[in-house]
Amino acid sequence: MLSAAFIAALMMMQDDTGIAVARPVGEAVLEPVSGSYFQVFEFYGRPPHTWRHAARMVKGYRHLDRDGHLAFVKDGATHFFLVLNFDLLRDKKMWIGLSAQCNESAELYWLDETPLSEGSFRAWSPVAQKKFREDCRRRAKSGINLPVYYDPTEFGVRWEVGTPTQNITHMMVEFPIPSEGDETEQGE
Asked: Are 150 and 114 a contacting pair, CB within 8 Å?
């Protein structure tokens, strides 16, 4: 029998960003500190394979009765866990659940609406923050969304700032422990 995550990953998605199919690459791996499972997914099908499309697509992914989302890498332990446990992360660019809205503040937010500024961990490449600030300064009133992705380089795996239409074929998906409210709703 096929797992629910695998079935969800094979679903066709069509929206204003295009049509794509994503499938898991390898197994979901448990990060013991957070209790979240992480897994790499790869897009197939007609591009674009944008961050916005990836963020919408993973909402239907499930693993062990846990809803998926693009990964939140809010601390060094999670970052190093991903780098050590997913060889593909050291070879392929991957979407994660962080982006910025270019407006007056140009604040970066995780998909759960937590500001990046609330934490102390950062995995930026040496020029990414400067590029991000310059891009948002030029587009201060646009409200444009600038997504963040993992970029493997000879110096390690670091965060980079992308464009709204950038194509990246891989995404890191997180399946966190359900919140208490989610468990209550499932049990009803």
From this structure: no
Name the pairing type of β-strands 94-101 and 108-110. Answer: antiparallel
Residue 10 lies in a domain: no
Residue 117, C-beta contacts closer than 8 angstroms, at least 6 positions apart:
107, 108
Which CATH number does the domain housing residue 70 bear?
3.10.100.10
pLDDT in tens, 83-137: 999 999 999 999 999 998 887 777 889 999 999 989 889 999 888 888 888 888 8
What is the residue range of 46's domain? 18-177
pLDDT for residue 62 is more than 80: yes
- Range list of H helices, 50-127: 51-57, 76-85
